[in-house]
Specification:
The protein is 24% helix and 14% strand. The protein has 192 residues and is an alpha/beta fold.
Length: 192
């Protein structure tokens, strides 16, 4: 449906609505409190659940590996990596774990989708939709560099809209910046 040229990445707000879609289809209440985010309402969940079907959501992903970078909403903590595996096998294992987490979003849940303690969650460190770049993210030498967002820059300091930790970066700047990842792996940033 989405094709090979487009990847829709899910973030922490999307997971709450994905859970609402699944619960609605199962005849249950809109959502549990596990994934709720600022701005979530049962009314919005009902509209989104009706507009976005299971077919669309099955096509969405939690990460994409492209041009030598792991791209996700919030970044991937070291505890979710597979340092003992070659990169291609590690990416397959991560993909399988992410698909399993999305499949079970309205059942038992998954640390891959939950907030860490720094964001008021139950997990020690945030998952791929919740990791806090400033307080939880580390650019471990294992694995590829990462590009993520999710952790907004401190208001009032526009120089920090694109922030780096080692080879990885966070470019969440209240919709004031974007990155362009070139085929050879070079990343170009624009702040406006």
């Amino acid at each position: 449906m989405l094709g090979e040229r487009l990847t829709v990445l899910l973030g922490n707000h999307d997971i709450a609505y994905l859970e609402a879609v699944r619960r609605r289809e199962g005849g249950g209440p809109p959502t549990s409190r596990r994934y709720r985010c600022t701005g979530y309402t049962d009314e919005r969940a009902a509209v989104i659940a009706e507009a976005l079907g299971e077919e669309f959501l099955r096509e969405c992903r939690l990460f994409q590996y492209v041009n030598g970078h792991l791209v996700s909403h919030a970044g991937l903590a070291g505890r979710f990596r597979y340092p003992e595996l070659p990169l291609d096998e590690a990416l397959k294992a991560l993909d399988a774990d992410c698909r399993q987490a999305l499949e079970n979003v309205s059942a038992e849940g998954s640390p891959l989708l939950e907030a860490g303690a720094i964001r008021g969650g139950r997990s020690s460190v945030g998952g791929i939709t919740w990791l806090d770049f400033d307080h939880e993210f580390t650019d471990a030498e294992i694995g590829p560099p990462q590009i993520c967002g999710h952790t907004v820059y401190p208001r009032g300091d526009p120089r920090e809209r694109v922030r780096f930790k080692g080879r990885s970066c966070c470019l969440d700047g209240h919709q004031t910046c974007y990155g362009r990842l070139h085929q050879e792996g070079r990343v170009e940033f624009r702040v406006f």
